[in-house]
Amino acid sequence: MGSLEQNAPAGRGMGVETVAGILREEIPIANNLTPGAAVMDGSQQQNSGVNHHHEVSVMAAAGNGLKKRVTIPLPLEVGTRVLCRWRDGKLHPVKVIERRKLNSGPDDYQYYVHYNEFNRRLDEWVKLDQLELESVEADADEKVEDKAGGLKMTRHQKRKIEETHAEEGHEDFDAASLREHEEFTKVKNISKIELGRYEIDTWYFSPFPPEYSDCSKLFFCEFCLSFVKRKEQLARHMRKCDLKHPPGDEIYRQGSLSMFEVDGKKNKIYGQNLCYLAKLFLDHKTLYYDVDLFLFYILCECDDRGCHMVGYFSKEKHSEEGYNLACILTLPPYQRKGYGKFLIAFSYELSKKEGKVGTPERPLSDLGLLSYRGYWTRILLDILKKHRGNVSIKELSDMTAIKTEDVITTLQTLELIQYRKGQHVICADPKLLERHLKAAGRGGLDVDASKLIWTPYKEQGG
Question: Which residues form the active site (predicted)?
Fold first, then answer.
């Protein structure tokens, strides 16, 4: 894999090539980026000799229903645990991950906080007035009281919550790699993007080139995915950009939905920009730097203005491990509409055309894992419900293009399989199948295989 090099070309998509790559699970060591590069933390300020401290006096709980006056030094230190008022209006326990100076006064700081109860995608910058200073922990062994809900957590409970959220989607990382990943990506560098008619709050860090470290919002061309710092720059670009759909071949159309296949080798800049964009919404994936080896399948909603990206998945042109999908994303404005399940189903339709079974590359994100489990469950239950007579694991795999290991783990989760006399036996009680089908919910949008016009890559002379 590659790394971001010191002499990497600057600039972006308007015909200027920069380093980027496909999203994979390796952890990059980026030579020209540092964690939280866009912020000045407390230690940097101390070294610069301009760190101004003062104190604020607050009434804090002292036990037995009593309160005592305590002094809280400001600015708050990185690592401070405190309660923060979230968008639901309630107080939630957080940990200060980073801080940055705004103006000259001692209170003019913003704090980047992680909500202990939530996924990292909800980490954000907050102002001092959102923090409940009375709840600042003076000692790590103290219990934190959630004044909004009366919830008390011991240090052990807090650690358990943090470990649970830290491991979501990172199960294949060892401890050292996970710590390195979280340190490198701990602060979101881009807060918002504008893509087409949507302004979207980002979820995670993405290693954009250093010249973009001073802006919190980026503007993307929704067709070629070039990105710029200012709205007027995007307006100028849109007047010149002649694309109205992703570059590449349209391989599927059903109603207003289209799927385009984009070859990373033929459309390198587009592939790189797509990876920068996708990393803003994927935590467990990091950048791998050779898009030439991948095909991108871009799902679009089409209207008289053009084809607007809804989501995508990528796959290796030649996967020795039998992966039929490397990375998958549905953009936030289009989530909960069945598009994720559609993308998964589409990847398996391609596998059927290739005459292979497939499985997604690991690790999966938390949302990706939920989508796959739901897809596998519905597909297998539907077959078992309609099938007459016995059916084997191998036959289920051949019918669905789902790898046998995924078939087995899904049926085990549903308690529909037993291991007897050295082999797996499917126990498909009709009432149990019906109950599981109801619990699985609707299947989302269907892929009409008759509308797929596609030749596998190996047959294209690749």
Answer: 361 (proton donor/acceptor)
Q: How far apart are CA 414 and CA 422, in angstroms?
A: 20
Residues 201, 155, single domain; the answer is no
- For residue 375, what are the domain limits? 367-460
Regarding whether 140 and 47 lie in a shared domain, the answer is yes
Which residues lie closer than 8 Å to 38 by C-beta, 6 or more apart?
A: 187, 189, 213, 214
Tokens found for residue 331: 């953009």
In terms of domains, do 376 and 454 share one? yes
Question: Are residues 215 and 37 in contact, defined by beta-carbon separation less than 8 angstroms?
Answer: no
Q: Which of 283, 318, 353 is the last residue of a domain?
A: 318
What's at 104, amino acid-wise? S
Plot region of 437 (φ>0 → left; ψ -120 to 50 → alpha; else → beta): alpha
Q: Rounded CA gap, 240 and 384, in Å?
A: 54
Beta bridge partners of 294: 316
Same structural domain, 376 and 439: yes
User: Which of 206, 213, 190, 184 is CA-nearest to residue 10?
Assistant: 213
**CATH code for the domain in which residue 103 is found:** 2.30.30.140
- Taking the model in full, what pTM does it have? 0.72
Neighbours of 45 (CB within 10 A): 16
Tens digit of each residue's pLDDT (9 = 90 or more) over 62-113: 555 566 677 888 889 999 999 999 989 999 999 999 888 887 665 688 898 9
Q: Flag whether 276 is in a domain.
A: yes
- Residues 240, 154, single domain; the answer is no
In a domain, 121, yes or no: yes
Query: Which one is catalytic: 182, 316, 349, 361?
Result: 361
Q: pLDDT, tens digit, for every residue of 167-214?
A: 444 445 455 555 654 665 678 889 999 999 999 999 999 989 989 988
d(CA 41, CA 266): 42
Q: What is the pLDDT of residues 282-329, one digit of tens each?
A: 886 655 558 999 999 999 999 999 999 999 999 999 999 999 999 999
Mean pLDDT of the region 431-454: 88
- Separation of alpha carbons 30 and 189, rounded Å: 15
Domain-located, residue 382? yes
Q: How many independent structural domains does the chain possess? A: 3
